[in-house]
Design brief:
Elements (H helix, E strand, L loop, with lengths): L1 H31 L3 H13 L3 H29 L1 H20 L4 H18 L2 H9 L2 H32 L8 H4 L1 H15 L13 H24 L3 H26 L8 H5 L1 H13 L3 H15 L4 H7 L1 H21 L1 H25 L5 H4 L1 H23 L7 H28 L11 H11 L2 H17 L8
Length: 483
């Protein structure tokens, strides 16, 4: 009898692992797709006759749609159930990716990228909901650490994979495989997901807050559109008008949430999320730690390709050390948390990541030829390793006590904080970057671009130092039991 029980436990353990693994695949493709157009932009420009504004909208459309729908997608996970939302939203993501890969005009690609962002926003929060439902409490923190690692690796590996695919030019397809690769991956994941993911529905959330959803989408569009397009368009008047609408929409949204909660109905954001101190701190830390990472790869790519004439393939190769170090230290972070505690691991990771970006400034500013990127590799390894010690355990620490029926909303809110942080970083680093380009990007020399990159890199150590301070002052011994 005992052998039968042991075998049953092993089978259940294995099934749970497969279920979470399938869910993590969706996270990887979602975050990998955020920045892939940055690498493929020159090829898309030539193939489709796209202009600079078109390319901006291809990048911004995905990010704006993703941020605008993410929290709503999370709440739908709590209401409609994991299996329905996972299969349906992943199918929509596959269809949108296929449409992107087959687009014939810039306008089509922009429209399909927006749809891809909407599907990604509906899909992303399902992963946290699946972890909460499938795994017992003692195994969730390890899964959250794995999720954090996949998010960070996907965000940095997406441009790397895009660089390889574009340079390979498979069957003369140019940039199209960067989208089409999602189709077979998604179909396999959906097939397994329909068999493995449980059809769970949150017990307490029964109705969709349509008013809150509309207000939240309007708020995120008003915030993300100027953040995403402003740095490249010179901050025209409409961006400031859009910013001015943000506090008004935010106040109306919060009022509607309080009114709905007071009436005993189901607000878009469950009230207990705001009462959880670690969760509130996690929102700030997510925004800060991701504020400079995506922007770093964007402006590094501009400097390498426009200033030093490095191809997308070699750019991908030379930035691989960052992704490899990030993955390795993310995998090690569980050991570090067990030995040092959650808060101490996070603080050390922030300081190490900040040091890595700080030491990168010297080779960027001093080395004037293509070897510059090689001189940044030691700093990339340090920065990637530090980020790995932060992102993987942070998710487990923040979500440790969130109940299952609020898991989707919590995941959506954290993902939104990450996207907003990334957009803020692009805007702030872009302002510093452009101060060194008096004649604009078209007339910038290699020296101008390297000076702009060196100056903009200051954002990263400041952001990570501030993150370390927040961790030590606000998390302390909180939830140090996380692995």
């Amino acid at each position: 009898m005992s052998l039968i029980v042991v075998d049953a436990d092993r089978a259940l353990h294995r099934k749970q692992g497969w279920t979470v693994g399938i869910a993590l695949i969706s996270t990887f493709v979602i975050y990998a797709d955020i920045a892939i157009v940055n690498i493929a932009a020159p090829v898309i420009e030539r193939d489709l006759g796209a202009g600079v504004t078109d390319l901006e909208l291809m990048v911004a459309g995905y990010q704006i749609a993703f941020a605008a729908i993410l929290i709503t997608g999370g709440r739908l996970a709590d209401i409609l159930g994991c299996r329905t939302m996972f299969a349906g939203s992943f199918a929509a993501f596959v269809l949108a990716s296929a449409a992107c890969g087959l687009a014939a005009t810039p306008g089509q690609l922009i429209a399909f990228r927006i749809l891809q962002g909407v599907a990604a926003a509906a899909l992303s929060p399902q992963v946290v909901a699946i972890i909460q439902v499938v795994l017992p409490p003692e195994r969730r923190s390890a899964a959250f650490s794995a999720l954090g690692m996949v998010i960070s690796v996907g965000s940095t590996a997406g441009p790397l994979i895009a660089g390889f695919l574009v340079s390979a030019d498979l069957f003369g397809s140019g940039w199209r495989p960067i989208f089409l690769i999602n189709v077979p991956i998604g179909l396999v994941a959906i097939a397994f997901g329909l068999r493995l993911v449980p059809g769970y529905t949150g017990e307490e959330a029964k109705r969709i807050d349509y008013t809150g959803a509309v207000l939240l989408m309007a708020l995120m569009v008003a915030l993300m559109t100027p953040l995403t397009l402003g740095p490249f368009d010179g901050w025209p008047a409409w961006t400031w008008a859009s910013f001015a609408a943000v506090p008004v929409l935010g106040a109306v949204f919060l009022w509607s949430q309080r009114r709905l909660g007071a009436s005993g109905r189901d607000p878009m954001l469950p009230p207990e999320l705001w009462r959880d101190h670690a969760f509130r701190m996690g929102l700030v830390l997510y925004a800060l730690t991701f504020s400079g990472v995506i922007a770093f790869f964007l402006y590094l790519g501009i400097t390498l390709q426009n200033g030093l004439g490095i191809s997308p393939l070699w750019q991908a190769v030379t930035t691989t050390p960052f992704a490899v170090s990030l993955a390795a230290f993310s995998a090690y972070s569980g050991v570090a948390v067990r030995r040092l505690g959650g808060a101490k691991t996070l603080a050390i990771g922030c300081l190490v990541a900040g040091l890595g970006f700080l030491t990168m400034i010297l080779p960027v500013a001093v080395v004037g030829d293509r070897s510059m990127v090689l001189w940044t590799i030691p700093s990339q390894i340090v920065a990637g390793g530090g980020l790995g010690l932060v992102v993987a355990p942070l998710l487990g620490v923040v979500l440790a006590q969130i109940r299952s029926s609020a898991a989707g909303a919590a995941s959506g809110l954290l993902g939104t904080a990450q996207v907003i942080g990334g957009a803020l970083g692009v805007g702030l680093m872009g302002l510093l970057f452009q101060t060194q380009l008096p004649g604009g990007l078209a007339e910038a020399t290699s020296g101008d671009l390297r000076a702009g990159l060196a100056l903009s890199l200051l954002v990263n150590p400041v952001a990570f130092a501030l993150s370390a301070w927040i961790v030590t002052r606000n998390l302390g011994p909180v939830r140090e039991e996380q692995p």
